[in-house]
Amino acid sequence: MKLGLVGLPNVGKSTLFNAITKKGIPAENYPFCTIEPNVGVVTVPDKRLEVLARMYDTKKITPAIIEFVDIAGLVKGASQGAGLGNKFLSHIREVDAIVHIVRCFDDPKVIHVSDTIDPVRDIETINLELILADIESLQKKIEKTAKSVKAGDKSAAAELELQNKLMEMLESQKPVRNYPASAEENEIIKGYFLITSKPVIYCANIKDSDIGGSDNDYVKAVRSYAAKEGSEVIVCSAKIEEELSSLEPDEAELFKEELGLSSSGLDKLIVTSYRLLGLISYLTAGEPEVRAWTIARGTKAPAAAGKIHSDFERGFIKAEVVSFDDLAKSGSYNNAREHGLVRMEGKDYVVQDGDVILFRFNV
């Protein structure tokens, strides 16, 4: 899974990226500090893996991962080349979802490109640039499809109708993700790689002194805006996240307790991302390795096996499945089997989150 971090300059985007990846990229207080998109990989926290590692006496734990792309600050007019221009819009097309960092704090020492703090205005500034970029991209597709229709391609007529509907939405300054597409239309739209078709998480960046308190007026405005388009919102302090990332795990837990936080902003972001993209994790366990595998919700056993190796999918015979909760309560795989908690599943089995699976295959 790949998430793209976007936002106006100086909203805390690079600071949050530092926290996420511990890569320490520059985050100085001036626009366009991030000149090339920075990519970092972060592991997905999953306490189930530690339980399985103790159970199977293994020291090798391989968690699921998320790739974050820090994309340089966009500004008004980016779709026409202002600021750093279209170069960075192309990087957004490659991600699965967009994390839109929004400044929700006052600080006269931190420059804002528009001089004043207005999160809804900032959101609309970037959203408009993404919409304008999509209009340009979709117009080219419409022209190509229209030629096919004139040439007598009957299947192209239906696609042209869909494209025109999407264009109407974009021209009314609404993102494509708000279009009520059917399952079939969704598959077609995916092939267009439109930026505004991607799901969005708005990350309201507040000052550290506001952590643990009620929403400030800026955050309330972001929540109201997001609710209208059906997007998700998380609240965090990029500076606190950066501090947490520099601490040892035990120290970080104590720091979170002091702040009254049940989870870090990063953890909330990952959980929200999984839910937004319809992702789950299944687990494999043994003495050599305990590992989490990310799949789409609704994936059947053979395709899940293919995440490990294509041979597993091609030669799939069956899957031995036990839920993590049942396995943990049983204390061992043998105990779970003796209590009838290990099931043999076939090709039509839909893998569930937390399934611990042993695949049987033959090639």
Keywords for this entry:
3-stranded mixed β-sheet; alpha/beta; about 375 residues; 6-stranded mixed β-sheet; about 20% strand; flat; single chain
Describe this structure in words.
With 363 residues, the chain is of the alpha/beta class. It is built from 14 helices and 12 strands. The strands form 3 sheets. The chain has a 6-stranded mixed β-sheet, with helices on both faces. The chain has a 3-stranded mixed β-sheet with strand order 3-9-8. The chain has a 3-stranded antiparallel β-sheet with strand order 11-10-12. It is flat. The model is unreliable at 29-35 (pLDDT under 50).
What secondary-structure arrangement, pairings included, does this model have?
Elements: E1 2-6, H1 13-21, E2 38-43, H2 47-56, E3 61-62, E4 65-70, H3 86-93, E5 97-103, H4 119-150, H5 154-171, H6 183-190, E6 200-205, H7 217-229, E7 232-236, H8 238-245, H9 249-259, H10 265-277, E8 279-285, E9 290-296, H11 301-306, H12 310-314, E10 316-323, H13 324-330, H14 333-338, E11 343-345, E12 355-361
Parallel strand pairs: 1-4, 1-5, 3-9, 5-6, 6-7
Antiparallel strand pairs: 2-4, 8-9, 10-11, 10-12
Helix pairs in contact: 1-8, 4-5
| Distance between the first and last residues' Cα | 29 Å
Helical fraction equals: 40-55%
Query: Strand fraction band?
Result: 15-25%
Protein structure class: alpha/beta
Count of DSSP E strands?
Answer: 12
